Amino acid sequence: EEITDRVQGKPLHINGLAVERLVTPQGGASIAEALQRDIDAIRAANGVPHLNHPNFGWAVTAADIQRVKNDRLFEIFNGHPFVNNLGGREAPGVEEVWDRLLRAGRRVYGIAVDDAHYFKRPWDARAPKPGQGWVVVRAPRLDAAALLASLEAGDFYASTGVDLEDYWADAAGISLRVRADGDTRYRLSLIDATGEVQTLDGPVARFTLTGRTGYARVVVRDSNGALAWTQP
User: Fold this and answer.
1) Hey, which residues does 169 pair with through a beta bridge?
2) Which pLDDT score, from 0 to 100, does residue 221 have?
3) Cα 26 to chain center, whole Å?
4) Is 121's pLDDT higher than 80?
5) Strand intervals (E) in the chain
6) Which residues pair with 201 in a beta bridge?
């Protein structure tokens, strides 16, 4: 279920995954208060919340999300053509919002979604279509409870078209193997809490974490524009 709220003229959209009953918009005196009340209502309905497209309508800032508790998922990519994923002027892109939250000590995980509304106009660049973004979840079994538990644990990656063949991480390092597609080329970048980026080319990479503090995550970019993001 998507909860559609509106506060101070700003659109707030939060998904309630696997809620057991209808959740209505809760409202609030501020963006952060409304987000918290909606998230609390989703939890009360035994659902898992995730915050949709923070930059849609330039509605939600990193400071707003920082004040919210009990929500670990938010969209770092949304396939709708008008949600301002990359930011503008004083508003950072949603991936930078993610890093700001992580640097502040928040454990939040980034998801990619279609936000598909239309299924009969695949040629229309202005129509939100399927196949734009998704997550790949590692879970012990294929049922809703196991999948949601893995999402909340960060045991997944987000993608707009890059597939990972293998991923492994521990305190010493992160190893990735991309499922290569024809002659497509790949660039893998490690981003840590200092903002440092270590970049390696090719479908296989091993990043060393020794001496790094805070968090580390990897972004994969292919030569045709598709991406994948591992969790911190």
Assistant:
1) 174
2) 97
3) 24
4) no
5) 2-7, 10-17, 48-51, 73-78, 109-113, 134-137, 156-159, 164-169, 173-178, 186-192, 197-201, 204-208, 216-222, 227-229
6) 187
pLDDT averaged over every residue in the chain:
93
- Min mean pLDDT across 9-13, 116-120, 135-139, 204-208 is at 116-120
Owner of token pair 């999300």: 65
Rounded distance between C-alpha atoms, residue 92 and residue 88, angstroms: 6
End-to-end CA, the chain:
27
Show Cβ contacts of residue 112 under 8 Å, excluding neighbours closer than 6 positions.
75, 76, 77, 78, 79, 132, 133, 134, 135, 158, 159, 160, 229
Q: pLDDT per residue over 166-224, tens digit each? A: 999 988 999 999 999 999 999 999 999 998 889 999 999 999 998 888 899 999 999 99
The CA distances from residue 97 to 38, 60, 81, 184, 218, in Å, are 21, 10, 19, 29, 16
Tokens read off for 116: 């598909």
> What is the rounded distance in angstroms from the CA atom of residue 16 to the CA atom of residue 62?
21
